[in-house]
Design goal:
Elements lengths: L1 H37 L3 H29 L1 H21 L3 H29 L2 H33 L4
Length: about 160
Amino acid sequence: MEDDFEKYLIAITFITSFFGVFITNGVIIGTPAIAEDFGMNNVLQNWIPTILVLVTTIFTLPSGQLCGKFGFRKCLLIAESIIVIGLILCCISTTTELFFTSRVLQGLGIAIGNVCEMAIIVLAIDSARRGKTIGIIVTGVYLGTSVSPVACGFLVENFGWKS
């Protein structure tokens, strides 16, 4: 039973780490199409990828405090919900302001999620298997980094940036 729980936990954290990076890097491919759609100048266009990374950086430390206070499982569920809400808002955005607000939400969700993932692994996985588990999670990060340009390029080219 314990082994199944660890496998489930590793799979969840792998998937969330993969998609956190996928969302962060994938939007870079769609930036020209997004900027054109919203009529953004070069200054605003540069904020498309930057705002998410900036918000993630700013909220990572407070997220640790938040997760410690309210619990890692609950905060991870909230984080993933915030990311999904941010993605939906991104797709239905009709203004630059709403689009950037959705990116802020995504960054906030990613910050909370990153902290929760690592804390859950450290707390739930036996120390003998912890290094291997963290290696698997980091593989998800680099896999997301590698796959996102190709996958997002395909999606943007064939279905538009909202895909």
